[in-house]
């Protein structure tokens, strides 16, 4: 078979063309690799020679330092004065303190972000958790968590309160607390009683001795006012080593506005509603030597019939009436406004009682048309009876719920 020879020049040309093709292909591959790598150009974000992709760089630790007191795991912590969160080389941005039920403790971060303190005391025998967040000057955050348990008191105090939760009362009814132990830390106890009203009105507390705390507005409540009392005494140290244990919300509503005015000289009582006289009733008040107190007196108890014995109020052997009708208490010392069936000619004519205000009535309290029955059935706890023109002194503010006989300035002082 004849074979045509290939010239050397033709072979070299094809070899050169092959090398150019390989070079071109290598250039394309290099361009592709360069494009995928994202390097070069004016982009200064990635420096592969110094560690490559910035997303893989180690996150810097915050310079801020958070300290929580008491220390983590502490037991028998005092309910006041021990909880505090501080930050160094940074500022606190959030602090959350919760009890085991998820209830939060209110508190405040200082203006410079250095400290957080609670705005109230803690409950006794309760476990708390603390979560705090702070940032350093470059905005890098750090967090700190802790938990602790408060002390279990060896002794406790209670406050008996009036009016009752859910009740409707007259415009003169204060909120009164009487404690079973003398209180030596009155400011802490008073701070733990928060009163809000709708519509809003300023309410202030006043201590009578060391075992009674009353709250009232400057003037009688407005009819229809809703009053809410947050009694947050759990954990309050009322006296050394003696802690409160009540945590209760109490609400009561103010009814219609009824105030009655007794004039000892005229021996008449004017009953007013919303400032208008609705009835004038003849009365008898304290005889000479037994005069009725002057002043504003709040109704605290009502009895369709009750026994009145002079021995209980310092008038030994002078009277003992087992069935006094339609009796309403005005003072702790024994002043009542009540029905009277044994002095039929006295009403409007003679002051003949031992200091009470008497209205005509019948034995057995059966006559609904008797003046005493009419008044009793239209009165409620918290209504006010004002006595004037008596020869006696003004009733003491703590004799019953009669703080209205003290000026607003003295009350708040």
TrEMBL record:
Ranges for region Disordered: 40-77
Pathway(s) served: Cell wall biogenesis; peptidoglycan biosynthesis
Gene3D superfamilies in the record: 2.60.40.3710, 2.60.40.3780, L,D-transpeptidase catalytic domain-like
Residue positions of the active site: 338 (proton donor/acceptor), 356 (nucleophile)
Positions of the L,D-TPase catalytic domain: 258-388
Entry keyword set: Acyltransferase, Cell shape, Cell wall biogenesis/degradation, Peptidoglycan synthesis, Transferase
Domain of life (superkingdom): Bacteria
Pfam families: Big_10, YkuD
Name by which UniProt lists this protein: Ig-like domain-containing protein
Top-level taxonomy: Bacteria, Bacillati, Actinomycetota, Actinomycetes, Kitasatosporales
């Amino acid at each position: 078979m004849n074979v045509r020879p290939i010239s050397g020049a033709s072979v070299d040309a094809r070899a050169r063309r092959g090398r150019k093709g390989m070079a071109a292909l290598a250039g394309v591959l290099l361009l592709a690799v360069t494009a995928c790598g994202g390097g070069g150009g004016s982009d200064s974000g990635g420096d592969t020679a110094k560690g490559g992709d910035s997303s893989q760089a180690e996150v810097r630790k915050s310079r801020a330092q958070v300290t929580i007191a008491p220390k983590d795991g502490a037991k028998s912590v005092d309910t006041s004065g021990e909880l505090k969160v501080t930050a160094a080389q940074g500022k606190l941005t959030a602090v959350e303190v919760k009890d085991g039920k998820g209830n939060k403790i209110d508190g405040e971060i200082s203006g410079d972000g250095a400290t957080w303190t609670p705005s109230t005391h803690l409950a006794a025998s309760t476990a708390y958790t603390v979560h705090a967040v702070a940032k350093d000057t470059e905005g890098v955050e750090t967090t700190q968590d802790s938990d602790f348990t408060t002390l279990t008191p060896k002794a406790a105090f209670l406050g008996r309160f009036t009016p009752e939760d859910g009740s409707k009362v007259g415009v003169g009814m204060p909120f009164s607390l009487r404690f079973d132990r003398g209180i030596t830390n009155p400011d802490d106890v008073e701070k733990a009683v928060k009163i809000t009203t709708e519509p809003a009105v300023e309410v202030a507390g006043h201590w009578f001795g060391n075992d009674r705390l009353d709250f009232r507005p400057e003037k009688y409540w407005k009819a229809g006012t809703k009053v809410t009392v947050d009694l947050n005494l759990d954990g309050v140290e009322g006296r050394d080593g003696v802690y409160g244990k009540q945590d209760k919300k109490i609400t009561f509503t103010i009814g219609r506005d009824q105030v009655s005015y007794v004039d000892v000289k005229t021996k008449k009582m004017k009953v007013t509603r919303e400032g208008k006289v609705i009835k004038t009733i003849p009365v008898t008040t304290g005889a000479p030597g037994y005069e009725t107190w002057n002043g504003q007196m709040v109704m605290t108890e009502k009895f369709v019939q009750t026994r009145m014995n002079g021995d209980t109020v310092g008038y030994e052997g002078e009277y003992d009436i087992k069935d006094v009708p339609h009796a309403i208490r005005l003072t702790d010392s024994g002043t009542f406004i009540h029905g009277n069936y044994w002095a039929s000619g006295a009403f409007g004519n003679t002051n003949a009682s031992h200091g009470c205000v008497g209205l005509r009535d019948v034995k057995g309290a059966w006559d609904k048309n008797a003046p005493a029955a009419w008044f009793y059935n239209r009165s409620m706890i918290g209504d006010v009876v004002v006595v004037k023109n008596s020869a006696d002194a003004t009733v003491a503010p703590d004799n019953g719920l009669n703080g209205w006989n003290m000026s607003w300035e003295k009350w708040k002082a």
